[in-house]
Amino acid sequence: MPDAVARSEVRATIVRVALRIAESHPPQVFVDVVSALEDGCTRFARTAVHREGDHVRIEVFNTRPAAGAGIACTMIYGEHETTVALGSDFVAGETYVVDVNGKVQTFVGQ
After folding, report:
1. Buried b / exposed e across 14-52, counting CB within 10 Å, b at 16+?
2. Contact partners, residue 69, CB within 8 Å, separation at least 6
3. Nearest to 45 by CA among 10, 83, 91
4. pLDDT class for 17, splitting at 50, 70, 90?
5. Dihedral of CA 34/36/41/43: which sign?
6. CB distance 42 to 96 below 8 Å
């Protein structure tokens, strides 16, 4: 696929989400995300993290050829693994919600 093809950004399908709390001082929170690359034209693009109080929203984006680009894509499925560091600004004993493109998990601050 030529690099000059216009691409558009789309929300990625999330396959798996796992939360990890590193045994450090202070404890660091990480989110391991596996997102789908539905075909040979789909590429991982970026993540964006938004936090409001006890709710953390992580958006994961892929890019695809823009509509009307006339590109034929191979039907090869792939996955992309990303680790998102959330830092250590979490109060011990409080419950937090992490939403990754609609896949929701919770953890308790340490």
Report:
1. beebeeebeeeeeebbebebebbbbeebbebbebeeeee
2. 5, 6
3. 10
4. very high
5. negative
6. no
Q: What is the pLDDT of residues 35-87, one digit of tens each?
A: 999 999 999 999 999 999 999 999 999 999 987 667 889 999 999 999 999 99
Please name every residue paired with 50 in a beta bridge, in sequence order, or none if there are none.
57
Question: Could you tell me which of 72, 61, 63, 62 has the C-alpha nearest to residue 1?
Answer: 72
Peptide bond into 65 cis (omega under 30): no
Q: What's the whole-number mean pLDDT along residues 21-47?
A: 96
> What is the C-alpha to C-alpha distance for residues 51 and 19, in angstroms, rounded to an integer?
16
8 residue type, one letter: S
Amino acid residing at 68: G
- Residue 67 CB: number of other CB atoms within 10 A? 8
